[in-house]
UniProtKB/TrEMBL annotation:
Organism: Paenibacillus oenotherae
InterPro entries: TMEM64, VTT_dom
Protein name: TVP38/TMEM64 family membrane protein
Pfam families registered for this protein in UniProt: VTT_dom
Transmembrane intervals: 6-24, 36-62, 68-88, 147-167, 179-199
Taxonomic lineage: Bacteria, Bacillati, Bacillota, Bacilli, Bacillales
VTT domain location: 51-169
Localization per record: Cell membrane
Family, similarity comment: Belongs to the TVP38/TMEM64 family.
Amino acid sequence: MKLWHSIIIYTLSVALLLLYKDELLEWLVTGQPHPLLIFLFALCLIIFPIIPYKIVIVALGLMYGPLLGAFLSWSAASIGSVFIYLWVRKYARNRGRTYLSRYKQLEKMAVMMERSPFLAIFLARLVPFFPQTLVNIYPAFLSIRTATYAIASALGKIPIMLVISYLGSNLLSSTANAILVIGLYAVFLGLVYAVYRLWLRERLV
């Protein structure tokens, strides 16, 4: 399949999902669909991001509880991110790497990530305010094995999936527990971000 064929299919898929977005969300919340259908729907929303994925995680936590909800969200997100990574790697890798080489700082980051790909991707996934779409795309421009990307990306997603799914499952009940979890997770994020900044600074010097 050529690049422009993929772009047309992608654009039409996004347009179709946007057209029926309200109906799909109503079906998600009230239709009690089978978990396999929910997984496929969540996978579509990773590949075609018509709504923030965190809304999906909250909804699945509310519907299925924190563990199953987190598992469905995590598995769909992990597979979807690999799909995007492979698509970009196939159709845009050379163009992307050429673009990165024009900017010294971006090229430094590329070299740094290629030296420690697992840790770089893992830490980027742990920090939820880091643009996750960028984490899907940027490594595809580099010399990083698909298996390394897939494993590091999937493991890094686990904490945020569990937290948001738990918050979704307690959305209508235990406010105190939800606040406690948010507080603990905020501390965890602070530590992760400090480690990430230290690691980044050492390798960009």
